[in-house]
Amino acid sequence: MTETFRYIIEYLVDVKETTPIEKIIKDESILASIRVLSAWFAEESSLEKEISQTIPFLIEICQYCLKDNTEVDLVKIVIPAFLNLTPLDKPREAFITHGGPQIMIDYLMKFWSNKEDHSNISDTEVNDILGPLQILLNIIVSEREKFIIRNEDEIWKIVNIGLQISQILGPKLKSYEYKSNEDQIILLGNTLLFCIFVITNTSPSSNLFDKNVIKKIVHIAKLFYDDQHIISQRDVWKQVEEVILLGEQVLDNNYITI
């Protein structure tokens, strides 16, 4: 099985060198190979070296799809693969070097700007938001301050979206005492952790250090973390325990001037 995917990787690397991106997007056999490989990458990472060679090609395709609004949403297709690969050093380095984080930021920004109802987040929308957000979170947790400082302007755009997500989900879930909407609990936990990591690794002297935004995020986070004894009784606790405890720890260990 591994050799089969090694062949597909070699095929796509060769395609990248010999075929214009405009033709790649219209070639069903190439698109099928990308889908199959992305599905495998979402579960497997044994060919780390070869995978790292493929990442620039996948990112280039994603850039083209975002820019030209192609019918095939390849970004959505490869997100599970990037989510599984970005915790690994070499694939994460390739992902960062070739502009992967900016793709995730642009994807989230585009999704949020096209969203018609900003008073609610449906289950389908949760899935569209969660993957890119978790990929960015993988990078921030690993790279911390050096990545945030280098990409401060773009990262804070997602913090502002994160605030809106938290304001939508926090009160809604609290009103039901977290008895439903498990996917939304997962999204809220990851959103708050992302925002807290960015806030605590941004200098208070930065022009982007918006105390009003920070105060609102910290307030929602504290309410959410204070209710973890309720969430811990739910099946979803296994999926959010790590992000809740980590977020609480980061918040407790950092004095935030607001």
TrEMBL record:
Taxonomic superkingdom: Eukaryota
Pfam families: Neurochondrin
Protein name: Neurochondrin
Biological source species: Rhizophagus clarus
